[in-house]
Amino acid sequence: MFKRIAIMVIVLLWSGLAFAAHPLITDDTGTQGKGRFQFELNGGYSNDNGNKETEVNTILSAGLRDNIDLVITAPYLFQNIEDGSSEDGISDIGIEMKWRFYEKDGLSFALKPGIILPTGNENKGLGDGKTSYSLFFIATKEIEPLTIDLNLGYIKNRKDLRDIWHYSLAGEYRVTKPLRIVANIGGETNPDKESDINPAFLLGGIIYSVNENFDVDCGIKAGLPKQRLITQSLQV
Length: 236
Known about the structure:
It is a single chain. The chain has strands spanning 5-15, 37-48, 51-65, 68-80, 86-90, 93-104, 107-117, 132-143, 146-155, 164-174, 179-188, 200-211, 214-223. It is an all-beta fold and 236 residues long. The chain has one domain: Porin.
């Protein structure tokens, strides 16, 4: 796996309904609703000892039913290697389905299985060359003006590395109708079998709803001390 330190992420979000909005990493149980769509465009930049990568994700969510979404993510990578070479092209496409199976008194549960297709060129470092899959359990509790989200997930590694177990918790506080303050903490197992240091993060930010179809957000993400590194990201 490409070990990297993310130093900047710029996000543009256009959505009919903004549920698990940036800058949060943790998803919530919200769905688009039958016949509704969400289009999302986000990008990220990372630098690992001179190996630079820019990733642009195009994400489309479609409401199949009121409680079921189909989500397709198509990433495009630009890579600049320390030796001066560069590559760019489409990476591995992800397909997920979110199913909210329980909802009562502000508490809801959902499952989100997914598959990652080997559409990127493995020889150019744009993909992993193998099909992978994941499964996430999502819980959301709404206590106005506070919303709490929990994610527990499993990701099958596509290479000869350790499979990944993910956990994260997010909180969202609505200050005013358009303004929300958010915080996020979480981590996952390290895919490197030779390392006993598991990546973890802490994130804080704000989300401002210009109107019901357009959100602007920004946040700062940092690696926790046990990682012995500093990870910062800016999202707008």
